[in-house]
Backbone:
């Protein structure tokens, strides 16, 4: 018997925004089972699904679009879909405009960025979590069957790590940047609903890490950033231009991540290049200003 139901990961669609520059994507049903094994017994007498918290997670290079849609604090992701492109034996992928493709859908969802990573030769990538919600009588996760899928968008959002500065001073030899946002999600449940109907970001605790070959970084160990100047930490993600190299530093094509105040420490020294791992814990000075701010379409800025 020939296989006729084979699908290849194609894209994730949030509302009207298609993310096709994916590193990976997966759906988790996260079903909680209620199983009864009586005292003295060895065999289960009862089993039922006590709840389900489905979600989609994926990695994408389209950071600029993602920041415009969700921001660093997370937000409404609208109707979320994971799209699979049909593959035909001895032929290959079916044309995008065909209605033979597959989709899994959440009619309501919360989207949030969990981390952003980048390196000197490593493309910047964002990891995303989409929490699916039950919307009225519609289940949180539905296999939608066959349908058409959107065309690929232009693969134009590729960034690499640019200069990192502390209080206006550029740190040399930086690499392996990571911004972990550590969001805490409030997922309140109705006592008779088996699937989540409410989700919101209750708090975030961003942590910035990177490595450097600059030994003078130890002068910042266990000190406060932004204490003497308003510059704090500035991390530039430089946009790469198709079929060329990077856009010029002065052009407004890049992404700037800024942390105004916080604590910095140096954790380790090692490796052939004597790398130091730097950890910055940004904070909000007034409980209303975001600890980390992302500015898209920015020139490269260090002070």
Residues:
């Amino acid at each position: 018997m020939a296989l006729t139901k084979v699908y290849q990961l194609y894209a994730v669609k949030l509302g009207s925004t298609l993310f096709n520059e994916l590193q990976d994507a997966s759906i988790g049903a996260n079903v909680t089972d209620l199983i009864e094994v009586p005292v003295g017994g060895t065999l289960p007498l009862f089993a039922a699904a006590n709840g389900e918290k489905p979600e989609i997670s994926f990695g994408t290079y389209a950071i600029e679009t993602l920041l415009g849609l969700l921001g660093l604090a997370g937000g409404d992701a609208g109707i979320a879909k994971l799209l699979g492109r049909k593959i035909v034996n001895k032929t290959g992928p079916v044309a995008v405009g065909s209605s033979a493709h597959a989709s899994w859908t959440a009619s309501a969802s919360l989207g949030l960025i969990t981390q952003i990573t980048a390196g000197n030769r490593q493309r910047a990538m964002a990891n995303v979590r989409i929490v699916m919600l039950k919307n009225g009588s519609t289940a949180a996760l539905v296999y939608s069957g066959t349908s058409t899928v959107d065309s690929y968008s232009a693969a134009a959002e590729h960034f690499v790590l640019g200069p990192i500065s502390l209080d206006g001073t550029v740190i040399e030899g930086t690499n392996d940047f990571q911004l972990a946002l550590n969001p805490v999600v409030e997922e309140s449940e109705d006592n008779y609903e088996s699937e989540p109907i409410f989700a919101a970001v209750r708090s975030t605790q961003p942590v910035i890490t990177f490595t450097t070959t600059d030994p003078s970084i130890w002068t910042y160990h266990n000190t406060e950033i932004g204490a003497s100047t308003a510059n704090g930490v500035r991390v530039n993600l430089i946009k790469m231009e198709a079929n060329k190299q990077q856009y010029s530093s002065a052009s407004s094509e890049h992404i700037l991540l800024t942390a105004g105040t916080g604590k910095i420490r140096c954790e380790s020294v090692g490796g052939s290049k004597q790398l130091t791992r730097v950890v910055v814990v940004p904070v909000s000075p007034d409980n209303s200003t975001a600890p980390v701010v992302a500015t898209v379409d920015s020139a490269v800025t260090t002070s």
